[in-house]
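Feature request, filed as a ticket because there's no other form

It would be nice if the structure record came with a short human-readable summary line next to the tokens. Right now we just get the raw output. Example of a typical job, pasted below so the devs can see what we mean:
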Amino acid sequence: MLATPTNTDTYTVSLVGTDGSVVASATPSSPTAVTCGDAAAALVPAPVSTSDTRAYFLDAQGNVRFLTPNGETGIATRVPAAGNVRSMFAVSPDDQRIAVVKATFTASGATTVLYVENLNGGGNHVQLFSETGAYTLWPTGWIGTSSLVVAKVPSCTQGGGPTCCGPQEYHVVNPSNGGRVYTVGGASCVPVGEPSPAGTMCEDSSFAKANILDWSGASRKSLSIQGPTPAYLSPDGSEVALVVDNETTFAGAKQTLDLVACGWIDGSHVIAGGDAQSQPRVGNVTTGDIAPVAAQGACAGRIPGGL
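Raw output as currently delivered:
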């Protein structure tokens, strides 16, 4: 899935196949911008999620809409949206449950409320966590239906280093009671790139080493890097896409692609996002072929969407 920025009245969500074709798209109204006062920006992820069969996206009214690869669309549920409130969400792979963070941003940070409920109708509502301070949570995804992954993220930013403004660590929690099962990453190895079903990449403070972490927090493999490097773990964990000097190399395959990858579609295809000046492309890791994509946007998830 590609999603364009939400800094205009509308944004676009596009579903892209491994051949570069755009199989479905939608253009919802953009969620209202939120800030931490005049001096700092509120940190929020793209207002999207994926299940095993659908993409979900937020509109300005707080409606969580869905889009299927065959073009079907509709409203799944509604989440809080008002003033300086932004709701962030992750839908379970089976389209049955939704994890929501309601974040109310102020000049001093954010008030965070994490809850889980039925996607359809809002039943079985369980509040898992609440806190006010300098950090908030992003619902990142589900491991099956038995575990929820949330990211610990600074509430606000005034700019900073390469790992200042995204997940600082992931928490694997029980979606029934909020109990933390594992902590993945942390100050000694901050997560980078998009997480995958196999885990996540993290980089140490010297940016000399990138580690593969599984969802128990265990380090599975280390790679040498030279400075901050965008790194993406393939869905099966067998390969790592590393972006260096506007090219993408692969730690588990003898291939280099002339594109700046931002995520994986499947185990043998990566996708590069684009803006008004650059066109998204799909790269085949096996053959080296590159296909243009007739859409704009940055990587925003994949189908199937479970971790």
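Something like this underneath would help us a lot:
The radius of gyration is 18 Å.
The chain is about 0% helix and 50% strand.
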